[in-house]
Amino acid sequence: MSLVADHDSTTQDPTSAGRDLELRAVTKSYGAFTAVRSLDLVVPQGSFFALLGPSGCGKTTTLRMVAGLDTPTAGTISLGDREITYDKPYKRPVNTVFQNYALFPHLDISENVAFGLKRRGVKETKKAVAEMLALVELESQGSKKPYQLSGGQQQRVALARALINNPEVLLLDEPLGALDLKLRRGMQIELKRIQTEVGLTFVHVTHDQEEAMTMADTVAVMNAGVIEQMGAPSELYDNPATTFVANFLGQSNLLAGDILGPDGDVVKVSVQGTTVSIPIERCHSEGGKGWVGVRPEKVMIAEVGGEIDAPGNRFEGGVVTDVSFVGVSTQYLVRMPWGQELMVFEQNTGRRPILAVGTPVDLSWRPEYAFLLDASQDAKAGVEDGDD
Q1: pTM for the whole thing?
Q2: Quick one: the chain helix, strand, coil %, rounded to 5?
């Protein structure tokens, strides 16, 4: 199938404005294997929405069902009050941009962008093509062939070819996966700029946490066919609800603790004999045992007895076991007296020399940065998942 799923008309029905994409109890099974399990999801019209997760979690299957390339085993998919569950791909107001771009090598860039319009019988395409090339900042490249453009430029051509059809929803299936790191980061900014300018609903499928957090208004983290948590990127990162989200969306230190109970607006937890406090709104476990979580960049480090700029609980007796200099920060591994290694990311401000391997240190963090998760969850969930 071609990159562009053509529509019946070049302009949308005015009554379609403001329509949300809704999935209700959507399930997709292949024999005994269930790829997507009773998924309920609402994507607000005009938002940039990311489905984030590892290979095999169901995110691409979900996108293919919205595109009409796969049919749900159960459930419904709607745009506003129009159900599109069983509509053919070309009958849906939806276009898809894939990772491999699928540009026609024998057509120049302008002809590639105009392809969908011409296929529907639109004779005058010059103005629309010029507007799309301007949108993706390729005005001077219209007469070139795809092989003459860089990977990032080809991706923008694919985007223009999809947008020229004026879809209600644009689906992006790992669109930046073939680009190198520098191009990928540049295209993240470009995609967000374009989405803001055109105001369409973008649904972006990716395994790359940075992509999702950089571009999306809302991120849904998928695992094993279900959404584990959904919200603004900062919300998911700062206050993950499961160990999978804590580990997959960035890195986390998870320390086993005994939950002592609430105390005002915090919950007290005993960790290796030290009582720590967790804000109640960041607690996702009722009682008994739990995982106390804290992001590595929120952990403060100092040589034994030194001043730590964090009015939290002090954990003493650590020893630096590894040091990695990564430019803006130094990443430490610190072995604690109970044998666990904790990660500490310290910004390189130049305030003090980098600590050497073997240095005895103390650690601390502000209570408001910690979170508490259910001890029944695997502390390593989401850590070693491979890329798509």
Answers
A1: 0.87
A2: 25, 35, 40
Say if residue 56 is exposed, middle or buried (CB neighbours under 10 Å; 0-12, 13-18, 19+). Answer: middle
Residue ranges covered by each domain of the chain = 14-238, 251-374
> Which residue's entry shows tokens 């900062």?
234
What would the two tokens of residue 373 be?
A: 């998760």
**Residue 5 scores a pLDDT above 50:** no
Question: And the tokens for 120?
Answer: 């529907």
CATH code given to domain 251-374: 2.40.50.140
Give the whole-angstrom CA distance, residue 387 versus residue 60.
Answer: 13
pLDDT at residue 18, rounded to an integer: 56
Handedness of CA 7, 10, 16, 22 (dihedral sign): positive
Cα–Cα distances in angstroms (integers) from residue 227 to residues 2, 171, 219, in the given order = 30, 18, 10
Confidence label for 261 from pLDDT (cuts 50, 70 and 90) = very high
**What is the average pLDDT across 335-362?**
95
Record: fold of 14-238: Rossmann fold (3.40.50)
Quote the percentage of the chain above a pLDDT of 70. 94
70-85, pLDDT tens digit by residue?
Answer: 999 999 999 999 999 9
Alpha helices, DSSP H only, in 260-327?
none
Question: What residues contact residue 20 under an 8 Å CB cut-off, 6+ apart?
Answer: 42, 43, 44, 45, 79, 80
Q: What's the order of all strands across the beta sheet hosting 289-294?
A: 274-279, 266-271, 253-263, 289-294, 371-374
Residue 241 is classified by DSSP as: S
CA angle at residue 33 from 32 to 34, to 5 degrees?
120
State the Cα–Cα distance between residues 371 and 245, nearest whole angstrom. 12
End-to-end Cα separation, the chain, in angstroms: 22
Looking at this protein, which amino acid is placed at residue 191? Answer: L
